[in-house]
Design brief:
By secondary structure, the protein is α/β, with parallel strands linked by helices. Among the domains are: 99 residues, Fumarate Reductase Iron-sulfur Protein, Chain B, domain 2 (Orthogonal Bundle), CATH 1.10.1060; 127 residues, Rossmann fold, CATH 3.40.50. The protein is built from 25 helices and 8 strands. The chain has a 4-stranded parallel β-sheet with strand order 2-1-3-4. A 4-stranded parallel β-sheet has the order 6-5-7-8, with helices on both faces. Helix 23 links the parallel strand 7 and strand 8. It is globular and about 60 Å long. 45% of the residues are buried.
Length: 421
């Protein structure tokens, strides 16, 4: 692809990066075949190739409109197009750069600005998010059913195993998962403890930065990254084996710290080291001898692979192989490469498209009549549970025996009273 970037971005690091990505695209259109929004809308500008052209025009200095912003907003950043692309186009990175420029050039309606600002002020901060959930719970009876379904009950969490092993790994703790499903990291600590590994926490760590960064608040997102690196670095220097990710959306972001902070003289080296240490929990367990794990009940599972795992981290097959090796029965899921519609804040900002994708995904997951739907990302887990009576759990909870799969708990976790069903 020929490019003539405008002066405002041509000689910047982001401009050079975007230029290289644009030039790698050969217009083949293979990406459209696996793009969820193109399949729903059938519009070239709502597929990767069309959005690449839009971003190219923006970076070449052409006029930018709210229509351009809408087509970019509709993108899930699921990165299925990257898995399909024969030329290795780094579409996800290009989308971040393009959206950032458009955000500066196009003023959003005031309600959109307020909504995005509130998301950034609440979701990355567990204490604030907890308070908001408590307030929402007080007014549950007045809330629309669609909103109630996004308010899962917080389960009780037992104590984690004590730090007693020479092998140590570090957990990401400070995101919405710590509020909505604290049992996930508790289950991870329990499983790793059985394998002779202690899971540590860094008290000053927080959100991975993905939410802010993907809402085009790039410097805010980078500051979250720097904060985590500062919190984790003493443990890195003490020799932790890995930074464990139990939310694949966080995992794909932390694995990119090294690239996103490569031009920061104070953090570039540390960021690269943290990224190199980062592993999804599935990667870790697949490399261990798990024959000694006392898996309580091996259930029939419909496995949902988050886009951030199979497309962002390119770890498709990892979780399936691990669960099959441990004796679980996996039901077939058609179109497993397609997004469920959660996609970070997408289900809030693009509810109509998100719901259409969700209904399709639930139909595919329930087709094999599983006992449990398992996934590896907190956003996907909450989103999927809002549309099904089947229990939806992080698969690590199944290994630890904390899957909470009774019908009553499903109803509670969906935030609905039994009288409303």
């Amino acid at each position: 692809m020929q490019t003539r970037l405008a002066a405002f971005i041509r000689d910047t690091s982001e401009g050079r990066e975007a230029d290289a990505i644009l030039r790698s695209c050969v217009h083949c259109g293979f990406c459209t075949a696996t793009c969820p929004t193109y399949q729903l809308l059938g519009d070239e500008l709502d597929g990767p190739r069309g959005r690449i052209y839009l971003i190219k025009q923006v970076l070449e200095g052409e006029d930018v409109s709210q229509r351009t912003q809408l087509h970019l907003d509709r993108c899930l950043t699921c990165r299925a197009c990257e898995t399909t692309c024969p030329s290795g186009v780094r579409y996800g990175r290009l989308a971040d750069i393009g959206r950032g420029v458009v955000e500066e050039k196009v003023r959003r309606p005031w309600l959109d600005r307020v909504q995005r600002r509130l998301l950034r002020l609440v979701l990355p901060y567990p204490q604030r998010f907890t308070r908001v959930l408590k307030i929402a719970g007080l007014f549950r009876a007045l809330l629309p059913a669609a909103f109630k379904s996004k308010l899962p009950a917080t389960p009780a969490v037992s104590a984690r195993p004590t730090t007693r092993h020479n092998r140590r790994m570090l957990a990401l703790e400070g995101c919405v998962q710590s509020v909505l499903a604290p049992t996930i990291n508790q289950a991870t600590a329990k499983v790793l403890d059985q394998l002779g590994i202690s899971l540590l926490s860094a008290s000053r760590s927080g959100c991975c930065g993905a939410l802010s960064y993907h809402l085009s608040a790039h410097e805010e997102g980078l500051n979250f990254m720097r904060r985590n690196i500062d919190a984790w670095w003493p443990h890195v220097e003490e020799g932790v084996e890995a930074v464990v990710m139990t939310a694949s959306g966080c995992g794909v972001m932390v694995k990119d710290y090294g690239k996103l902070l490569q031009h920061d003289p104070l953090y570039a080296e540390k960021a690269a080291r943290v990224s190199a240490l980062t592993r999804d929990i599935g990667e870790i367990l697949l490399a261990e001898d798990c024959s000694s794990l006392g898996v309580p009940v091996r259930k029939k599972i419909a496995l949902h692979l988050p886009c951030t795992l199979q497309h962002g981290q390119r770890l498709g097959g990892t979780t399936e192989n691990l669960l099959s090796r441990l004796g679980f029965t996996l039901t077939p899921v058609v179109d497993a490469h397609l997004c469920c519609g959660s996609a970070g804040t997408y289900s809030i900002l693009q509810p109509e498209l998100s719901q259409r994708l969700l209904v399709n995904k639930i139909e595919a997951l329930e087709a094999g009549d599983p006992e449990v739907i398992a996934t590896g990302n907190i956003g996907c887990m909450v989103h999927l549970q809002s549309c099904t009576q089947k229990p939806v759990r992080h698969w690590i909870e199944l290994l630890a025996g904390s899957d909470r799969s009774s019908p009553e708990s499903v109803i509670r976790n969906r935030g609905l009273d039994t009288a409303e069903n």
